[in-house]
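Subject: for your reference before the review

Hello V.,

The reviewers asked for a structural picture of the protein, and I figured it would be easier to keep everything in one thread rather than splitting it across files. Below is the amino acid sequence we used in the manuscript, unchanged from the supplementary table.
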Amino acid sequence: MKKSKLLLHIGLLGTLLVAESATALADETELVPIESLKPAVPMVKPDLMGTGGSLILSDSPESPKTEGAYYRDSVTGSFRVFWHHQNMTGGPLTVAVAVTNESDEPVMLFSEGIGLATDYYPDVAGQMALADFMGNHAAQKKEAILQPGESYFLTTLAEDTYTASGIANFTAYTQHGHRDATVTVTTLGYKEQPVNPLDVPILTKDMHVRGTFPHADRTGTLEYNTSSSNSLIRISSAATGQWSDSMPGEYEEGWNAIDGGTVINNGNYGVMYHLSVAINNEEAAKRIISVYDNPSGGAGHYVIGWGKDLLQSPYVDYHNAWKFTEFTVNKKGKTVSAELSLTGGAAGPQTLYFTNRAVK
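And here is what came back from the structure prediction:
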């Protein structure tokens, strides 16, 4: 038995609204050459803590050529699913997340934010899905009561060569006793919805990553001192190697439930960074603070939550930085909450630059 939630029409409506918002922002957004922000002093790296439920990452095969399942694993209680797949099957493909109750008692499934999008450009799909998710992920909604053997489907329809990108938070409880419940999550693509998603064979992986990770969020405090003039911090830098500039606690080792191997989510796709940004004004007068985002690892479209604002970038590459906010602080400084994640289809790291100048 199955419970299916077709979010195609809702997802497309959200896509159109986000696209209109992104276009408006693109007309008003300032891009500056990255060289104009240099030299910049590296900021002190904060210690990040893994928080939230587990993360299921589905990005392999990234460009499936046939129907099939991409990843499958069992999780308990709260979890997030992030998926990013480009349809290369030659025709329309439904890309879905299926949640199956394999226990012998009813399970209640709640969502706490869902972001879905399809687009010809993979990074645009990633931006729209993340913006959709960040715009509604505070509200909890009952999605289904799954009887033993039943599945819930969250679906989007992707035309040939289009990318389906999504991010969704879920929590599973037992109906009796309201205890954390264990469910099986399958990401898959199909022409006709299967009766049982657990029967769909897993496709062979490619060079990209699929896996399950202990925590879906990172929290920490970032400090910018005005006496440092121009400063920078890299977020979603490579976990290891010559290009790594990662922060303490930024990366966690995950596992691939299909082959049993360990994996690293380079870029932390699907991971939300919740940062408390403390602006320490060390001058004797008010200062104007400007903050920029530079995709020093490549290019793409990005989303940042800053205070109460949800901000979306135009297309920006590593030659430029997106000025996404500017504000004045008094002699006491200011603390702002920030939320960001690397969008599907965009390359990391995201390098944040902080500058300040006198108020005229």
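For the response letter, the relevant points are probably these. The radius of gyration is 21 Å. DSSP finds two helices and 27 strands in the chain.

Happy to draft the paragraph if you're swamped.

O.
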